[in-house]
């Protein structure tokens, strides 16, 4: 297992750390491009990336709806799939944060708690892993657009992710970042919250969409697909022109596919 | 007050559609958050202060019986009387009895959340007393016959126009019949009305922000000075306070005061801080002849013994609701009881039961902003999640949700089937959405769309499928 290295050139010989990518269910089902972008970025950062096929969901639906036993069952699945890697990385602050919370699910099972702790200690959200652990300071990508950035709550508050994506975005050629007013206010997604209380959720994402439009940005980026689906859904309904991407897609230079909820390219697209 | 929390969903929707309320909420929205942020920025030791506050509160809660006894002894030494109320009903009865014994007709009140909690006003009015709230916000909602919608700013849901109308309707009997438009005029008119009440009052009832054990002192903070007048002018002063309000020393109280003002209103210190200890002593120029303290338990000792103990650190600053986007969207009344917002979503189910208030802990995105600003570091989202767990164990939630979760857990623990299932789902959704790339509606998913949003369609293949193909292609 490699120690953190500085610099951004990792051509990797003996010391390539083995990273287990936790894809997350939303990236798996909705946007494989985010998973591919994550792989590309991790490889650029000198990691060897593997994706165990036995991984599924992080367990948040159960955890946040009070079914702690169910969450523990899903968590065991994840731990078994990923605990042997040097690092576990997820392109989501929310799911990454959940993996870090696993020890809480096993307060009466010391064996599992031990394993959960060990895995939690090496689990990271993608962007902060690239910058904080792999020392990545720049990316080789171009995205000549005005963009704004939404700080998803779990990444921001549970994992302290704020500057990391901005630092890397600043090195994307042609990209102009316009800060979003209230970028730290929740978009109203909240997992099952958005379908349990759709009217309240709708108001919150409406406020978010208005703030995004006010920046004059052409594109909004974020680090969590849940929030991004919510935001893209609202922007789409309002008929605006703002496009929505996961920040990893832009950083990896892979935002050449339609944004979330955009019409498919006539050639047949994905 | 009778809880209306079971109707949270409906009440939330009304609130969202109530244009006047939305005007009031929007006006209030950023004000408090911005002021708090400035105040915190101006005090580099804010976080250290928070740590100290947590330590003070934890220590006191661990030794609560000891400090309550010390406090009660000190009150009695100073000539006051302490009453223990284990329930809301007890508290109401005790207050009514004291007022009867005093031969009271008119009672003035300072703002007291515990008073709201146990329903003091209703009990007193039912017993034939005239009760007048002297905090401007409380006075306004008393005229409107409404409960508070915020624990610091009880009338935050009212617009200036609504308040002008209320005054116009209610002040004519005092010969004040001009319709007012400006805030200072309204404040003056309310003061004028209230001044005569202070002088007439036989009993003054206040809450307490802190009770100091070493001296038997109760501390209240106000911005209008009404607390002073309520506790010193009438011949009887009653303090109503939850048992968690006690702190060991005056020094501890000042530590908490520094946090309270900054967290609540962004002030360095509240305009008036009133310390009162016992009745008037021989030689004092003013003060009440009788001094009573009603210490209210009403479920607090139960909290002390379970997972919700940390909630007893709460100093009722309101920062959690000022930073809560759900509260910001629907205001306080939708929550249906006395305490709204994040802290209320924990206290309400604990007080009135999860059956009545099960929606409250669920109506939260767990975004964590409340815990980030809570001066005494209460892990509000964790406690909300714990309540959800309790609800799940009691089988109180919606059945379809339970089934859905059970199915999902099964799915997530069978990875082969999970891969196949997600593959079919991604493919189907992408096909159905076609070129448009998103859905405007979809059967069985109406709730998503009721939020006024489309649903983006998947790209078409799952990541796992793409990855497996890529691995094969690379001959691994
Ligand atoms: S929970 Fe914390 S933020 Fe909310 S009112 Fe209590 S002390 Fe203030």
Low-confidence segments of chain B: none
Q: What's the β-strand tally of chain A?
A: 8
- Quaternary structure state of the chains depicted: heterodimer
- Report the total helices of chain A: 13
What is the highest CATH level, the class of the domain at 51-136 and 201-301 in chain B?
Alpha Beta
The tally of structural domains of chain A comes to 2
Explain what you see:
The complex is a heterodimer of chains A (270) and B (476). Chain A is 45% helix and 11% strand. Chain A folds into two domains: 18-132, no CATH class; 137-251, Rossmann fold, CATH 3.40.50.11810. Chain A has 270 residues and is of the alpha/beta class. In chain A, β7, α12 (225-238) and β8 (243-246) form a beta-alpha-beta unit. Chain A contains 13 helices and eight strands. Chain A has helices spanning 25-30, 32-44, 60-63, 68-82, 93-101, 110-120, 126-133, 153-159, 163-169, 193-196, 198-215, 225-238, 247-251, and strands at residues 18-21, 48-50, 87-90, 123-125, 146-150, 176-177, 219-222, 243-246. Chain B has 476 residues and is α/β, with parallel strands linked by helices. Among the domains of chain B are: 51-136 and 201-301, Rossmann fold, CATH 3.40.50.10420; 400-471, no CATH class. Chain B is 54% helix and 11% strand. Chain B has a six-stranded parallel beta sheet with strand order 1-10-7-4-2-3, with helices on both faces. In chain B, β5 (210-212) and β6 (217-222) form a beta hairpin. In chain B, α9 crosses α10. Chains A and B meet through α1, α2, α3, α4 and α8 of A and α1, α15, α19, α20 and α21 of B. The complex binds iron/sulfur cluster. Residues 263, 314-320, 343, 374-376, 378 of chain B line the site of iron/sulfur cluster (SF4). The site of iron/sulfur cluster has 13 residues of chain B, from α14.
